[in-house]
Amino acid sequence: MKKAEGLLLVISGPAGAGKGTVVQALKAEDDNIRVSRSATTRPPRGQEQNGVEYYFLTKEEFEKGIREGGFYEYARYVDNYYGTPKKPVEAWRREGRDIIFEIEVQGCEKMKKIFPECITIFIQPPSMQVLEERLRGRGTETEEKIQARMKRAAEELPLASLYDYVVVNDTREQCCRDVLQIIRDHRTRA
C-alpha cells in the first residue's frame, strides 16, 4: 500500500508578524512536520547559518537555479530573491511528512497553482504598531529597511482574505495552538 502524502501548508505574513518563530515552535511540537527552508540572496542576520535558517545564495547562484527550474516559486522582496527549492520537498512528500512552506505573500499564489490542495495560513500581527515594535526589537534592520518592511506590510495585510485561514499572532503560544489545531483538523479529514 502506498504511503499517504502529508499535508502541504503555506504560512505567510508580513515581516515581523512572528511567522518564523511560530513555524519553529510547530516543528518542535510535532515531529511529523518538516519546514521547507527557503533560499535567499539577503545576507545572514546575527547568528543565522547557511542551511539552517536559509540557504544563502549569491544573486548569480539564485538566478542559475531559476534558469534550471530548481524552485517551486520565487519572488523578489525588498531587493532580494527568496525561493522554495524543490529537492528536499519532493523527498519529504515521499515519506508522508507534513510540510510547511514559510513564504512571502507573492509566493502563495504560485504555490496554490502548483499544489491546489495546500492549506494557506496568514499570520497577522495584532496591529501595525506591534509590527513596527517587533521589527525594531530585532535590532537587525536599518531605519530604511524598517520603513520598507512597514510599507510592504501595509500592502500585504489586505491580501490576508485570499488565504484559507487568518491567525492573529497576539502571543506565540496561542498562535501555535491555533495553527496546530488547523493541522490536526485537516489530518482527520485526510
Question: How would you describe the overall organization of this protein?
Answer:
The protein has one domain: Rossmann fold (3-Layer(aba) Sandwich). It is 43% helix and 22% strand. Strands 2-7-1-8-9 form a 5-stranded parallel sheet, sandwiched between helices. A hairpin with a 2-residue loop joins β5 and β6. α5 runs antiparallel to α6. The chain is globular, with a radius of gyration of 16 Å. The model has no long low-confidence stretch (mean pLDDT 90).
Could you provide a short overview of the structure?
The chain is α/β, with parallel strands linked by helices and 190 residues long. 43% of the residues lie in helices and 22% in strands.
List the helices and strands and how they pair.
Blueprint: E1 8-12, H1 19-29, E2 33-36, E3 39-40, E4 55-56, H2 59-67, E5 71-77, E6 80-85, H3 87-95, E7 98-102, H4 105-114, E8 119-124, H5 128-138, H6 143-156, E9 165-168, H7 172-189
Parallel strand pairs: 1-7, 1-8, 2-7, 3-4, 8-9
Antiparallel strand pairs: 3-6, 5-6
Got a strand count? 9
CATH class: Alpha Beta
User: In one word, what is the shape?
Assistant: globular
Strand content: 15-25%
What number is the mean pLDDT? Answer: 90
The SSE order reads EHEEEHEEHEHEHHEH
Largest beta-sheet details: 5 strands, parallel
Going by CATH, the architecture would be 3-Layer(aba) Sandwich
| Alpha carbon gap, first and last residue | 16 Å
Secondary structure: helix percent: 40-55%
